Amino acid sequence: MATYGGWQELREYRVWSAEDVWQVTTVSKHRNGWYSVDTDGYDVPYKTRSESEAYECATQRTETGEREATDSCPCAGWDPEEREDCEDAARNVYGDSHGVRTQIVDMIENRELQEYEL
Question: DSSP assignment of 48-98, as one string?
Fold first, then answer.
C-alpha cells in the first residue's frame, strides 16, 4: 500500500495483454475526502468526493483499455470463434497468449479482488 502527500491507494485496475500490463488505473483517497482516478495515458486525473463515482470512472477507463488492447492484438481480425485460439498459447499460431484480461487489486490488503467483491 502506497501513501504519498496525503493520498492512499485503494485499488488498481490492471489490463493485461498477454503477459504485459497494457494499462493501469489507480483509485486513491486523500485524507481530506477527495478521490482521484489516475490512468496511464490520461493527462488529467478524475477527482470526485464520491467513492462510487471514482470506482465507476475506473471501471469505464478499464473497459476502454480492454477494447484498445483487444484491437491491438495480432489476432484482432480473427472471427470470434477463433478468439479462443488467440487466448491459448498451445493453440496460438504466434506461440504465446495474446488474450486480454483485467485484474483488480485491493492495495490496502494487497490481494486480487474477485468479481463478487466489487
Answer: ES-HHHHHHHHHHHHHHHHHHHHHTSTTTTS-GGGHHHHH-TTT-TTSS--
Distance CA 93, CA 84 (A): 12
pTM across the whole model: 0.80
Overall number of domains in the chain = 1
Q: In angstroms, rounded to a whole number, what is the distance separating the alpha carbons of residues 117 and 88?
A: 27
pLDDT in tens, 3-25: 678 899 999 999 988 778 899 99
Range of the domain at 8: 3-117
Residue 110 identity (one-letter amino acid): N
Location of C-alpha cell 471501471: 59
Direct distance between the N- and C-terminal alpha carbons of the chain, in angstroms, rounded to an integer: 19
Closest CA to 118 of 36, 70, 51, 41: 51
Cell output for 22: 497494457
Distance, CA of 118 to CA of 88 (rounded, Å): 27
List CB contacts of 42: < 8 A, sequence separation 6 or more. Answer: 61
